[in-house]
């Protein structure tokens, strides 16, 4: 059977690169587009060392209409798209809201505009649990209300889902929006992983960098939340589990198995883990002592968010499989490999 050709936007990024590996291993042919604003072309060699295949790569900014048109003209056989490309730093989005709206929404509009006319758009979209804001009830199910966004970044995800719903309802397009909770971890090979630029905002890379001495001390933001140990609770989902869900969602669209043309699913483990528990898990798994101190609450943090994953479990037949220990071990392996390689190159 002929392989489907899949367009992966943001495919050199953190989740995009892990999903690209899974897609290649599942037999798909890829065209990756990325402007490398938050990733490196070196990731392509990583994907090649794991899979034996170097995917086609086009460096471009998705906001550029002419270049996006060209992608589809030169690849009329693209069957579907997984759309990861976006700016994603919550704090930065407060400082540069227009940049976030421009980047995240124009990229999506160009994708929909230039997708070939001869077959309807099929798209898996990277959404976020941020669309639920500070939820009234836990765990958060897909029936939980969409709340006003806590940041311009979060708002781009809410608006993008609305654009996709409107588009799907007036065309023959098909879409699955995947609402990720907190993705962490790395490929078990240690060859690809999360590579934030500058000082990490997210917890896991801050922990691994602190353990290696790249950062001095981890600050735990807030110890007086209404949670079992006073620190915030999140649902940390392994990036490989997440990547596998994309392959399932893609196949659901390609095989026309959807119940409606616009579907959305929570992707998490269903378990809440506090910041302090995460620190302790890390110390147990890696036998590293972590320097940490308590600091004031971080603006915009919600006390507790974790997923009800019943819908994804039942309808997609997908379940998070990796243990937190395995996920942390992979993140640690990746961080050590990366730093070793970096020192080597200096
Ligand atoms: P990432 O920054 O590692 O990857 C995004 C990629 O998109 C980067 O390689 C970047 O260079 C590229 N990109 C950004 N704007 C572009 C543009 N205009 N044209 C072309 N390429 C562009 O981020 P990630 O963690 O892999 O996230 C992937 C997707 O998942 C994003 O849409 C993000 O909002 C969403 N998401 C991430 C998380 C998380 O915690 N990592 C949680 C929920 C949702
Ligand atoms: C946020 C966004 C999410 C987005 C993700 C990607 C919200 C509610 N969530 O997740 O939509 O997709 O970022 O960037 O906006 N922490 C520390 N010290 C640190 C770093 C983090 O204590 O140095 C704590 C935070 O306070 C939080 C937890 O660790 O309680 C997780 O933080 P983080 O990894 O930044 O993810 P979220 O804020 O949950």
Summarize the structure.
By secondary structure, the protein is an alpha/beta fold.
Give a verbal description of the structure.
The protein is α/β, with parallel strands linked by helices. It has a domain at 5-184 and 237-268: 3-Layer(aba) Sandwich (Rossmann fold), CATH 3.40.50. It is 40% helix and 17% strand. It has helices spanning 14-25, 42-51, 65-74, 90-95, 97-114, 152-169, 203-211, 239-254, 275-286, 310-316, 324-345, and strands at 5-9, 29-34, 56-59, 78-83, 122-128, 174-180, 182-184, 218-221, 233-234, 236-238, 262-267, 273-274, 292-295. A 7-stranded parallel β-sheet has the order 3-2-1-4-5-6-11, sandwiched between helices. A two-stranded parallel sheet has the order 7-10. Helix 1 links the parallel strand 1 (5-9) and strand 2 (29-34). Helix 1 runs parallel beside helix 2 (42-51) and helix 1 (14-25) packs across helix 8. The mean pLDDT is 95. Bound molecules: nicotinamide-adenine-dinucleotide (NAD) and uridine-diphosphate-N-acetylglucosamine.
Q: Describe the sheet with the most strands.
A: 7 strands, parallel
Q: What portion of residues is helical?
A: 40-55%
| Poorly predicted tracts of residues | none
Structural class: alpha/beta
Helix and strand topology:
Layout (H helix, E strand, L loop, with lengths): L4 E5 L4 H12 L3 E6 L7 H10 L4 E4 L5 H10 L3 E6 L6 H6 L1 H18 L7 E7 L23 H18 L4 E7 L1 E3 L18 H9 L6 E4 L11 E2 L1 E3 H16 L7 E6 L5 E2 H12 L5 E4 L14 H7 L7 H22 L1
Parallel strand pairs: 1-2, 1-4, 2-3, 4-5, 5-6, 6-11, 7-10, 8-13
Antiparallel strand pairs: 9-12
Helix pairs in contact: 1-2, 1-8, 5-6, 7-11, 9-11
The structure holds nicotinamide-adenine-dinucleotide (NAD) and uridine-diphosphate-N-acetylglucosamine.
The site of uridine-diphosphate-N-acetylglucosamine (UD1) has 23 residues, from α7 and β8.
């Amino acid at each position: 059977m002929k392989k489907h050709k899949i367009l992966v936007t943001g495919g050199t990024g953190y989740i995009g690169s892990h999903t690209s590996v899974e897609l290649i291993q599942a037999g798909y042919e890829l065209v990756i587009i990325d402007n490398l604003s938050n990733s490196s072309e070196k990731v392509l060699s990583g994907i090649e060392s794991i899979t034996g295949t170097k995917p086609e790569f086009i460096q471009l900014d998705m906001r550029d209409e002419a270049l996006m048109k060209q992608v589809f003209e030169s690849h009329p056989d693209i069957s579907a798209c997984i759309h990861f490309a976006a700016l994603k730093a919550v704090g930065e989005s407060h400082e540069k809201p227009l940049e976030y709206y421009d980047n995240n929404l124009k990229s999506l509009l160009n994708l929909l505009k230039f997708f070939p006319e001869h077959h309807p758009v099929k798209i898996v979209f990277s959404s976020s649990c941020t669309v639920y804001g500070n939820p009234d009830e836990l765990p958060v199910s897909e029936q939980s209300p969409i709340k006003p966004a806590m940041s311009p970044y979060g708002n781009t995800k809410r608006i993008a889902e609305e654009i996709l719903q409107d588009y799907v309802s007036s065309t023959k397009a098909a879409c699955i929006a995947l609402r990720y909770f907190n993705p962490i971890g790395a490929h078990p090979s240690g060859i690809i992983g999360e590579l934030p630029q500058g000082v990490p905002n997210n917890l896991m890379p801050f922990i691994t960098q602190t353990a290696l001495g790249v950062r001095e001390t981890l600050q735990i933001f807030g110890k007086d939340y209404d949670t079992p140990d006073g620190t915030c609770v999140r649902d940390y989902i392994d990036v490989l589990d997440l990547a596998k869900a994309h392959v399932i969602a893609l196949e659901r669209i390609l095989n026309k198995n959807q119940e409606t043309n616009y579907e959305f699913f929570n992707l998490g483990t269903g378990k809440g883990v506090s910041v302090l528990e995460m620190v302790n898990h890390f110390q147990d798994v890696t036998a590293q002592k972590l320097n940490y101190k308590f600091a004031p609450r971080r603006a915009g943090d919600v006390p507790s968010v974790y997923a009800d994953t019943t819908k994804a479990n039942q309808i997609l037949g997908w379940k998070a499989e990796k243990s937190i220990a395995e996920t942390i071990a992979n993140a640690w392996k990746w961080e050590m490999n990366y730093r070793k390689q970096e020192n080597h190159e200096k």
